[in-house]
Specification:
513 residues; single chain; mainly alpha; disordered C terminus
């Protein structure tokens, strides 16, 4: 333990368990809806455009409001913002559960995303206030990071289990008891913190932040769906233009929403880059893994989710181990080693074929989980340790916003590359007899090929599926190779640039009430 610094006791560790609840739930919510789409589509009959908005509006509002909410929490109180967000998240979850039509469900999902944005930044920022000892803070952040990664993996399992037993609204209703628990325990176990000299909250910066993030994330998602359409490109350009205006305003304000001086710290900026690239590669590959397990191997959603559990388990182990090793090893070396482990996991994934044994997939997930768990734990700790106490909320929000952006880029870029490989290989080996819309649908996606195969004879459908599944697996292999290259290069970069950086600055002024 750090000499002269107060150590955390039972209340702080119980408080950490409370802080993990919203993080776990929000990351589950991001993935659980995908499995409910066929069921709610049959019930609510949304149009294709409405279905996309049901899925995407949550992520858009979450990403767009993270930075304003992080700054707001620093000003009005992090615990207060967390509890207000929990109330809003619970209410909107009930509305989504019983939504009678697609329009109300879209509105509920939008408000749910805004509520989620108010939940995320206070969780990591409050850890900074509760754990003043460097070793304890690192362990607490490691648990936080592992819960974030684990929730993404648990989403398919939870969703599969619920949908096999209940109606589609159950994937939203599970949020309510967790939020009630947070509202009961939060005031008892969590300290309050606010910046003693917050300055004025700049509404123009909040609007510019939304104007920068929303069209950028929307355009990136459209790239994945529409193959780099002019509309998607224009959306990204508009978002980046607003981003430039936002940054220029932050530089001129005496009390900026985003303190650009944070980026002058090599520890902060490199942690942000490594965390974003790790999520970029992981989410991009999981886009393929989910389809591979269900559409290539033909597994039920619940069973497919169970096969991804090794990634959650080793993410926890990697996070905990990194927190312990950080007592003696500099963070740059830990991040570099974690990235190389992840690179090994991606490389193993690149060997998977249509008929590969499942142990190959599990081995790759074990390496991926442990490596990315270590990277996220150390990077998250560096970000909250380097930022001044009064800016911890906004610094946490920047990291979480970059994570959202990294995930969207992963699906858009790696997904588009994988689908391009699929289309090319399918065209080369396409079975004879496909014409018109059937040929077009089968050529575009594996899901389209499966839909066409169901309308063909058993022999013709089987031949089509063999070609489509082989082409899809080739696309997944290319995405995995790219992920391995990105991880390996980032490992070298992080090791070199962070080799002299030490982070042991946990003597924090608390300003607690």
């Amino acid at each position: 333990m750090t000499q002269g610094v107060a150590t955390a006791g039972r209340r702080e560790w119980l408080g950490l368990a409370v802080l993990v609840l919203p993080v776990l739930l929000i990351s589950i919510t991001v993935t659980v809806l995908y499995f409910a789409l066929p069921f709610l589509s049959a019930d609510l009959a949304p149009t294709g455009s409405q279905l996309l908005w049901i899925v995407d509006i949550y992520a858009f509002l979450l990403a767009g409001l993270l930075i304003p909410m992080g700054t707001l929490g620093d000003r009005i109180g992090r615990r207060k913002l967390l509890l207000v967000g929990a109330t809003a998240f619970g209410i909107t979850s009930v509305v989504a559960t019983y939504a009678p039509n697609a329009e109300l469900l879209i509105a509920a999902r939008a408000l749910q995303g805004a509520a989620a944005a108010s939940l995320m930044p206070p969780t990591l920022a409050l850890i900074r206030n509760m754990f003043h000892d460097a070793q304890q803070r690192r362990m607490a952040v490691a648990i936080w990071a592992a819960s974030f990664a684990g929730g993404s993996v648990l989403g398919p399992i939870v969703g599969g289990w619920l949908l096999e037993r209940f109606w589609w609204g159950s994937v939203f209703m599970i949020n309510v008891p967790v939020m009630v628990l947070l509202l009961v325990l939060g005031p008892l176990l969590l300290p309050e913190y606010r910046d003693p000299n917050p300055g004025r909250f700049d509404l123009s910066s909040a609007v510019l932040s939304l104007a920068a993030v929303l069209p950028t994330v929307y355009g990136i998602k459209q790239f994945a769906a529409d193959d780099f359409s002019p509309q998607a490109l224009l959306s990204v350009v508009v978002g980046l233009a607003f981003g430039v205006v936002f940054l220029r305003r932050q530089r001129a304000l005496p009390d900026p929403m985003l303190d650009l001086r944070l980026f002058s710290s090599r520890g902060f900026s490199m942690s942000l880059i490594t965390s974003t690239l790790a999520i970029f590669a992981l989410v991009g590959l999981f886009y393929f893994i989910a389809q591979y397990l269900q559409m290539v191997l033909g597994l039920r959603p619940f069973v497919a989710g169970l096969l991804t559990l090794p990634a959650a388990g080793t993410a926890l182990v990697g996070s905990m181990l990194a927190a312990v090793v950080a007592r003696w090893v500099r963070p740059g070396y830990i991040i570099g080693a974690g990235m190389m482990l992840a690179a090994g996991g991606f490389l193993v994934m690149s060997w998977i074929e249509v008929d590969s044994e499942r142990w190959l997939l599990i081995a790759g997930l074990l390496l991926l989980g442990s490596g990315i768990g270590a990277v996220q734990a150390v990077a998250s700790d560096m970000i909250v340790a380097v930022a001044p106490p009064e800016r911890a909320g906004s610094a946490s929000a920047v990291m979480e916003a970059s994570t959202e952006l990294g995930g969207a880029l992963g699906v858009a870029i790696l997904g588009s590359i994988g689908l391009a490989v699929y289309s090319e290989e399918f065209a080369e080996a396409s079975p004879a007899g496909l014409t018109g819309n059937d040929a077009l649908a089968a050529h575009e996606t594996l899901g389209g090929a499966i839909g066409v195969a169901e309308r063909l004879s058993e022999q013709a459908g089987g031949a089509l599926l063999d070609v489509a599944r082989a082409a899809f697996t080739s696309g997944m292999q290319v995405a995995a190779i790219l992920g391995a290259v990105i991880m390996a290069l980032t490992a070298v970069l992080a090791t070199i640039l962070l080799r002299s950086v030490r982070v042991d600055t946990s003597t924090v002024d608390s300003h607690t009430e």
